[in-house]
């Protein structure tokens, strides 16, 4: 047992160059990990913005669909047939093949006094409106 604890059996300190190499590798890995994490946050934010933009464009198209339908009805001399919105909650909607819109009509077609039609389109969390004045 005495020979086991001799000074010659105790290992010397590690090579200083090896310690520096390990520290450098760990530093590089930490930097690469930080860059990857930052990039993932940026990409996920861009995906959310892109999704929101797509919903906004779809809602605008749906509002335009409502306006086109209302213009056709007015041109044919009939009251626009889309569901009337109930402000401020806008609870009534016309739904045609996933197209959701409602109309706010100022005036009546029967006496030719329609002065304004507003169509509100909704898709996902986006709501857009288009308004025409006669």
Helicity range of the residues? 40-55%
Spatial gap, N to C terminus: 107 Å
How many individual domains?
Answer: 1
Sequence stretches where pLDDT stays below 50 over 5 or more residues = none
Number of strands: 4
Write down the overall mean pLDDT: 75
Q: Percent of residues in beta strands? A: 15-25%
Rg, please? 34 Å
Morphology call: rod-shaped
Biggest sheet, spatial arrangement of strands: 1-2-3-4
- Separate helix tally: 1
The helix-strand sequence is HEEEE
Kindly summarize this structure in a few lines.
The chain has one helix at 16-75, and strands at residues 94-96, 99-106, 116-123, 126-133.
What does this structure look like?
45% of the residues lie in helices and 20% in strands. The chain has 134 residues and is α+β, with helices and mostly antiparallel strands. A 4-stranded antiparallel β-sheet has the order 1-2-3-4. Strand 3 (116-123) and strand 4 form a beta hairpin. It is rod-shaped, with a radius of gyration of 34 Å. The termini are far apart. The mean pLDDT is 75.
């Amino acid at each position: 047992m005495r020979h086991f604890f001799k000074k010659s059996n105790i290992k010397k300190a590690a090579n200083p160059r090896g310690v520096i190499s390990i520290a450098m590798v760990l530093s590089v890995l930490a930097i690469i990990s930080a860059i990857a994490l930052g990039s993932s946050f940026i990409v996920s934010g861009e995906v959310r913005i892109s999704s929101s933009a797509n919903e906004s464009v779809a809602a605008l198209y749906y509002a335009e669909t409502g306006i086109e339908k209302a213009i056709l009805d007015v041109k044919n001399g009939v009251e626009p047939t889309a569901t009337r919105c109930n402000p401020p909650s806008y609870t009534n909607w016309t739904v045609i093949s996933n197209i959701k819109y409602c109309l706010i009509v100022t005036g009546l077609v029967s006496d030719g006094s329609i002065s304004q039609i507003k169509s509100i389109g909704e898709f996902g969390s986006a709501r857009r409106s288009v308004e025409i004045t006669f």
